[in-house]
């Protein structure tokens, strides 16, 4: 049966609706360095896992992963953040804030979209880091500049921030 023009238009619209941009520059990834050991832990992002998150300051990343799946292991880093650098917040409190954002239409639009669009397939990756020895702002900026996650909007270096704004 031949494909009709309106079928192609419909399929294209559905394909474009599920298309999202990712930054895939292995050279930039390889340049990422941290003088701190980053022992990442992760848990599926769901309310039942709050107790698995430590009450410590640290860095975190949301990843979109299909698990379990019959496909090879893969995923995308969607968002990177820090908590507890200048406040009394911690990883567990931040995790709980994201759980509340699931149902908050007044939240940050990109974050609300990520949490709802991929609910059930998001993982919360985190590294608790000692209070005095790590400048979380510098670590976050270095990770953002290496990965350029699609949901993050701020905290990139000036060169990357300008390029992101100019890209269309």
Counting DSSP H or I runs of 4 or more residues, the number of helices is 6
Total strands: the figure is 4
CATH homologous superfamily label: GIY-YIG endonuclease
SSE run: HHEEEHHEHH
Q: Structural class of the secondary elements?
A: alpha+beta
Sequence-ordered SSE layout with sheet pairings:
Blueprint lengths: L4 H13 L8 H6 L9 E4 L13 E8 L9 E9 L7 H11 L7 H9 L4 E7 L7 H12 L10 H9 L2
Antiparallel strand pairs: 1-4, 2-3, 2-4
Describe the overall structure.
With 168 residues, this protein is α+β, with helices and mostly antiparallel strands. The protein has one domain: GIY-YIG endonuclease (3-Layer(aba) Sandwich). Helix content is 36%, strand content 17%. The chain contains 6 helices and 4 strands. The chain has helices spanning 5-17, 26-31, 91-101, 109-117, 136-147, 158-166, and strands at residues 41-44, 58-65, 75-83, 122-128. It has a 4-stranded antiparallel sheet with strand order 1-4-2-3, with helices on both faces. It is globular and about 65 Å long.
Compose a concise summary of this entry.
The protein has 168 residues and is an alpha+beta fold. It has six helices and four strands. The protein has a single domain, classed as 3-Layer(aba) Sandwich (GIY-YIG endonuclease).
Provide the descriptors you would attach to this structure in a database record.
168 residues, alpha+beta, GIY-YIG endonuclease, 4-stranded antiparallel β-sheet, 36% helix, 17% strand, globular
């Amino acid at each position: 049966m031949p494909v009709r023009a309106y079928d192609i238009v419909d399929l294209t619209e559905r394909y474009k609706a599920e298309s999202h941009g990712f930054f895939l520059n292995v050279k930039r990834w390889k340049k990422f360095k941290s003088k701190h050991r980053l022992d990442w832990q992760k848990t599926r992002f769901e309310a039942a896992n709050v107790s698995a998150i430590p009450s410590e300051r640290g860095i975190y990343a949301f990843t979109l992963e299909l698990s379990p799946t019959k496909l090879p292991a893969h995923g995308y880093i969607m968002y990177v953040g820090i908590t507890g650098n200048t406040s009394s917040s911690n990883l567990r409190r931040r995790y709980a804030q994201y759980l509340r954002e699931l149902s908050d239409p007044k939240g940050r639009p990109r974050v609300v979209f990520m949490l709802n669009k991929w609910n059930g397939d998001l993982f919360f990756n985190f590294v608790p880091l000692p209070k005095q020895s790590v400048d979380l702002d510098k670590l976050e900026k270095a990770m953002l500049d290496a990965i350029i996650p699609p949901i993050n909007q701020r905290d990139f270096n000036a060169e990357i921030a300008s390029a992101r704004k100019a890209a269309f």
